[in-house]
Amino acid sequence: xxxxxxxxxxxxxxxxxxxxxxxxxxxxxxxxxxxxxxxxxxxxxxxxxxxxxxxxxxxxxxxxxxxxxxxxxxxxxxxxxxxxxxxxxxxxxxxxxxxxxxxxxxxxxxxxxxxxxxxxxxxxxxxxxxxxxxxxxxxxxxxxxxxxxxxxxxxxxxxxxxxxxxxxxxxxxxxxxxxxxxxxxxxxxxxxxxxxxxxxxxxxxxxxxxxxxxxxxxxxxxxxxxxxxxxxxxxxxxxxxxxxxxxxxxxxxxxxxxxxxxxxxxxxxxxxxxxxxxxxxxxxxxxxxxxxxxxxxxxxxxxxxxxxxxxxxxxxxxxxxxxxxxxxxxxxxxxxxxxxxxxxxxxxxxxxxxxxxxxxxxxxxxxxxxxxxxxxxxxxxxxxxxxxxxxxxxxxxxxxxxxxxxxxxxxxxxxxxxxx
Length: 420
Known about the structure:
Strand content: 15-25%
Radius of gyration: 23 Å
Order of helices and strands: EHHHHEHHHEHEEHEHEHEHEEHEEEEEH
Distance between the termini: 34 Å
Largest sheet: 6 strands, mixed
Low-confidence stretches: 1-35, 159-173
Oligomer: single chain
Helix content: 25-40%
Mean pLDDT: 84
Shape: globular
CATH class of the largest domain: Alpha Beta
Number of helices: 14
Structural class: alpha/beta
CATH architecture of the largest domain: Alpha-Beta Complex
């Protein structure tokens, strides 16, 4: 899992549109030969992207099952539209981005926007200068530093008008935390809108610790953490701000992931992960996984999150009562990782409805297209649940499941009342 030294795995997708809906009539119309040359350039990049996806993207079969889409038809559709594209920004916004959107973000597959490019490059350089660069960070920075990539993201967007994100669009909250109290249930309550990265707002650490100590001093027996609607962010947030200040001993959580392809394999190895041949995979541990489902994979890897006390956080929890975690179907990625951790370690009782999953995969890798320098990303590993199902198909199932139509908070309070 991602610690303080690890960069954020950003999950916000920024929508881009060309500035202006019509072309300048004074602009000369390209000749057919020029259009042919332009089309060949974009066709080459498009075919390269398809090849990378088919041979390295581990969620392709999952995407087909979840979305019920015919991706062969989708491939052809956007390829035919390339003949109408004349600029790199048009290729970005009219071909690559909508094509990747067809995957519904399964396995974190998406375009890298201008804003995300700038944010990640700045963060990677900060980590590099501070001597805290994760191993795979060098891999990412090298890809972002390629001349054609820098040229595209530094110059091609000058004429692109970016959509202004609302709170609902991007989960860009001014107030990430909201606190309430339920004295009749001896419970404190905090909702967390996003798992912020270390450089976004570390003031949350102080607010949360003060809250935990406050309800503990009042003698409250329960603490409800609400992450419904939380689409993820960075594992650092829940590890550093919630688990470490409240752990009562060492906690660990192990997961298995599958991968394929030379590009994905090299990225995972660059991160310092050990990969094992798929022929050695312990399939007997996963009752819902068949030999046929392993056929398209070449390797697997094992990840283990171990959270132990340190000199900063000895075994003296800020809150000594019972933790409850509220979840729903929009809990994804780093937020789902927290839900899975709570369920497997017993740190909190998970209440609500099945999450959206996405926690078992490795931090997304970035691939640049050779001609245009446009970047896209996806998780190189397919995370497995403990029964062998894909974490993108089946999310974390709560310890206490809310009834259809029942509010998860009401379900939690009812469970607290009946359990005391």
